[in-house]
Amino acid sequence: CSMIYGSTGATHFDQLAKILTGYEITGARSSGIFMGILFIAVGFLFKITAVPFHMWAPDIYEGSPTPVTAFLSIAPKISISANISRVSIYGSYGATLQQIFFFCSIASMILGALAAMAQTKVKRLLAHSSIGHVGYIRTGFSCGTIEGIQSLLIGIFIYASMTLDAFAIVSALRQTRVKYIADLGALAKTNPILAITFSITMFSYAGIPPLAGFCSKFYLFFAALGCGAYFLAPVGVVTSVIGRFYYIRLAKRMFFDTPRTWILYEPMDRDKSLLLAMTSSFITSFFPYPSPLFSVTHQMALSSYL
Amino acid sequence: MPLSATMVGALLGLGTQMYSNALRKLPYMRHPWEHLLGMGLGAVFANQMVKWEAKAQEDLDKLLLKAKQANERRYFDDDED
Questions:
Q1: Residue A90, Cα to own-chain centre: how many angstroms?
Q2: What is the average pLDDT across B19-36?
Q3: What ipTM score was computed for the predicted complex, to two decimals?
Q4: N or C end: fewer C-beta atoms under 10 angstroms in chain A?
Q5: Is the predicted pLDDT of residue A130 greater than 90, yes or no?
Q6: Can you list the alpha helix ranges (DSSP code H) found in chain B?
Q7: What gap in Å lies between CA B56 and CA A41, rounded to an integer?
C-alpha cells in the first residue's frame, strides 16, 4: 500500500483506477507500482492459503482446536475475496495481477489435488482440500469478468456451507478421538446417518451432481471458458477428477473398511446436529432451486462494475 | 405458488428436524413439538425466500438496464464517463 501511495500519491480507489488503468502499455511504468501491487496480492494470497503461500495451512489447521480451524477455513476466504475484489477489480486490475492469479489458481488446484492424496489425518486432508478449493475460487476472480466475479461469489457461499458441514462432523468425531482417516473405519456401523452425511459432504466437495459443489465448479469453469482461459478450465476439471480419489476413499473407509481400533459412539449435542442437518439440507436441495443465489450474486458482481 | 412454497418449506423443516434426531441416534419423532416448530419455520423461510427472490430479480433487471444504458452512452454517444 505504501509503495503504491509513494508511486501514485493516491489512496482513493477512483483515483487509483484512473492512474493504474493500462499503466503497463502507456509507458508510465514504475517499479514501485508493480512491487506494490505484487506485495498486496501476495499478502492476500497468504491469508487465503493459495499456492505458493500455503505452507502454513496444513500444520496450523491440524494443530488448532476444531472450531478455530473451521473459522480459519471459512472467514478469511470470504473476507479476503471481498477485499481483493474491491481493491483489484476497482483499483488496479491489469495483466500483472491476472497472471499472478492465473498461476496461483492452477498451482493451488494441482497441489490441493495431489498433496491431499498422501494425507492420513482428517484435518490435514481438509486443509489440503481447502487449498484446492481456493484454487477453484480464484479461477473466478482471475477471469476479470462479471461472470467470473459472480462465479467467485457462488463458489464462496457454497464452499462456506460445505466447510461448515465438514468441520461440524470433524468436531462431532473428535469427541470419540477420531484423528486419522483409518479411525473412520466402520463409522457406517456405529453411526450410519453421520457416515451418510460425511459422504454427502465429500461428494459435494468432489463436485458430483446433483449436489451444491457441482453447481459451483460448473459455474466457475464456465466463467473461465467464457473469458478465454482455455487452459485453466481443463486443469480444473482434471484436478477435480483426481481429487475425487481421496474424497471417495473416505466414503470407502467408512462403509467398507474395518478400523484399527473400534471407536465407541458418543452422543452429539443438539446444536451440532441441527447445524449438520441444515447445511446438509442446503447441499442436497440447492440444485433444484439455485436462482436466489444466482440473482443476488449477479447483482453483487454487476454493482462492482457499474 | 405460495401453497407449494409453504408445503416445500414445511417438508424441509420437518425433514431437517428428523435428520437432526437421526444424527443423534434418537427416534425420528422424539419431541414432536420440535417437528412442528421446524415445519413452521421452514414454511416461513420458504415463503420469505420466494418473495426475496422476486425482489432480487426485479433489482437485477433494473441494474442490467442501467448497465446497458451506461454502455450505450459510453460506446454510441462517445461519452467520456
A1: 22
A2: 90
A3: 0.83
A4: C
A5: yes
A6: 2-23, 32-75
A7: 32
Say which residue the cell 443423534 belongs to. B24
What is the structure's pLDDT at B2?
62
Under an 8 A CB cutoff, do B60 and A291 touch?
A: no
What type of residue sits at position A255?
F
pLDDT at residue number A129:
92
Give yes or no for A292 touching B (CB within 8 A).
yes
- Per the CB < 8 A criterion, the answer to whether A130 and A73 are in contact is yes
What one-character DSSP code corresponds to residue A121?
B
Chain B residues lying within 8 Å of A278, measured CB to CB: 16
CA distance from start to end of chain A: 24
A288 touches chain B (CB under 8 A): no
What is the nearest CA distance from B23 to chain A, expressed in angstroms? 6
Which residues partner with A180 through β-bridges? Answer: A121
According to DSSP, the residues that pair with A121 across neighbouring strands are: A180
Share of chain B above pLDDT 70, in %: 91
Model confidence, pTM: 0.88
Which amino acid type is present at position A65?
A: P
pLDDT digits (tens, 9 = 90+) for A137-148: 988 888 878 888
Q: Is the pLDDT of residue B1 over 70?
A: no
CA–CA min distance B11, chain A (Å) = 11
Cell numbers found for residue B51: 418473495
CB pair distance less than 8 Å for A274 and B16: yes
pLDDT of the residue at A155: 93
Specify whether the CB–CB gap between A233 and A151 falls below 8 A.
Answer: no
Q: Decide: helix, strand or coil at residue A180.
A: strand
pLDDT for residue A303: 82
**If you count residue pairs, one on A and one on B, with CB atoms under 8 Å apart, how many are there?**
62
